[in-house]
Amino acid sequence: MIEWFASHNGVEQLFLLSGIVGGLILILRLILTIAGLDHHGGLDAVHVDSDAGFQALTIQGISSFFAMFGVVGYTLFHNAALGLVLSVASALAAGAFSLWIIQKIFRSMLRLQSSGTVSLFAAVGSEGSVYLTVTKEGGSVQINFANRLREFEAVSADGATLPTGTAIRVQGVSANTLIVGPADR
Description:
Blueprint: H1 2-6, H2 10-35, H3 52-55, H4 59-79, H5 84-111, E1 127-132, E2 140-145, E3 148-156, E4 167-174, E5 177-182
Parallel strand pairs: 3-5
Antiparallel strand pairs: 1-2, 1-4, 2-3, 4-5
Helix pairs in contact: 2-4, 4-5
């Protein structure tokens, strides 16, 4: 292997080394991802509030750049004999393209994330029942909200006392307390 590598000139060795190192890192990251061991280091965590230019500079992005730079550069310089300038320019373009593709993939994956929190304001208009008597000072209601039966603190909208079991409709939200009134049936 060493003799084969040494039989190439300096430019070909640069392309080969870039392709081999970049490819090995990509394969190692793929194996770690499949094994579930890729996220513990935090070396390339992408933060939503970070600069967009730095989001491309991940281990996957940089290694894909070097892998494509090496493979395309070696192929064009050694096999197609296109010359140094055209081979390097094409290799840089291929590396930049792979970096751009990796960035697009990561941005697409970030759009798939959700916080899992539900805004309490989405409960306005929901119907439920009084769990503990609701007065103008407070009480507790149960409503089917976000596909779950949930209990919330509540106050009466018009100050009337709503006894346990009364059907209610959420009319508004104040801080973490629902403002409820009797449901019109």
